[in-house]
Amino acid sequence: MENTYKENNFETIMKGRRSIRNYDTTVKISREEMEQIINDTVKAPSSVNMQPWRFAVVESAKGKEALAPLVRFNKLQNETSAAMIVIFGDLNSFEHAEKIYGTAVEQNLMPQEVKERQLEALSPLFAEMSTEDKKEMAIIDGALAGMNLMLVARAYGYDTNPIGGFEREKIAEALDMDKERYYPVMIVSIGKANEEGYPSYRLPATDITTWK
């Protein structure tokens, strides 16, 4: 019984993981539901809980028009999806440290002394951190959020497609965001599939795993 459950559950998840490029254009996602999806998405882990991910939900005709020349070979997703969710990493995310840790203390999730110790240790580290190191952190944490977003979207009954092919140097400005502060990680298109995604081959564990 347990094996059957695992197999069926795994099959459902994997079917939802197929990348969808053509969406049903009649399907829209309300702002309330999108906020719920994002609130569930950000339960993903992040480095010292700084949560550097920032989301730009591009759903309007004007927004998609601005995005169109920047998404290269992913224009069909832009044209048909309910939204294109651009995930950025905030390179100044430590500005929110006091709010994050302070609220954790207020909600009895963290002792006051732990908060003070953490901030004392982390403040000089973030102050001295290079831009490249901040970008690396943004990519790792943003990717965790992106994968979580895809799984959450599936739980809500929606399909997704992760997109890495876009004009990274231009996308922040196109969305009226500070390109020196917000580093683009990926785009996730979301909506209801208009056609089935194609299955793909994955290398087995024996090909990609080393045991020590």
Automatic annotation (TrEMBL):
Molecular-function GO term, any one: oxidoreductase activity
Keywords: Oxidoreductase
Highest rank taxon of the organism: Bacteria
Lipoprotein recorded as keyword: no
Domain annotation Nitroreductase: ranges: 15-192
Family: Belongs to the nitroreductase family.
Protein name: Nitroreductase domain-containing protein
